[in-house]
Design goal:
Blueprint (H helix, E strand, L loop, with lengths): L12 H10 L3 E8 L4 E5 L3 H25 L7 E5 L3 E9 L2 E8 L4 H19 L9 H5 L3
Antiparallel strand pairs: 1-2, 1-5, 3-4, 4-5
Length: about 140
């Protein structure tokens, strides 16, 4: 996979498409902020992509909590869920960013994990998500 130029950072769906081309057993993928906001998606309609982003955020958060309690660290490398006919891979993708990939059941987890890590390493600075600012009470009650 090639390097990403700054002018391509706005539309990251092509990165996810490239991942699916590298690993044809991938059914779809989403890039999300760590709090569950969808940033980019490939092979999912908007509603499904947003639902997967929310689920991935929750699973990633649970893994971080488990790490904090039992591993003395909140760093999560990857969460993998084996479903009936799919595998779900969730990885940290940079500051405040998470990558979730849904693959077929017959996918080789080592291949999917390797390609996800390779993509993330190649383009990590462009996957970072800025922290959202919190609105003050007066900001929320003002009309435009």
């Amino acid at each position: 996979m090639s390097s990403v130029s700054p002018n391509q950072a706005e539309d990251l769906a092509w990165l996810l498409r490239g991942l699916s081309e590298e690993v044809p057993v991938i059914r779809g993928s989403v890039l999300l902020s760590s709090d569950g906001m969808l940033k980019a998606a490939h092979s999912f309609d908007r509603a499904s992509a947003e639902q997967l982003a929310a689920l991935a955020s929750g699973l990633f958060s649970i893994a971080r909590s488990a790490g904090t309690k039992f591993d003395n660290s909140n760093e999560v490398r990857q969460v993998v869920a084996e479903l009936k006919s799919s595998q779900l891979f969730i990885s940290w993708a940079g500051y405040n960013s998470v990558l979730a990939v849904l693959a077929n059941a017959e996918a080789d987890p080592a291949v999917v994990g390797f390609e996800m890590a390779r993509l993330i390493k190649a383009v990590r600075p462009f996957l970072h998500t800025a922290a959202r600012s919190t609105a003050t009470t007066s900001d929320r009650h003002q009309s435009p």
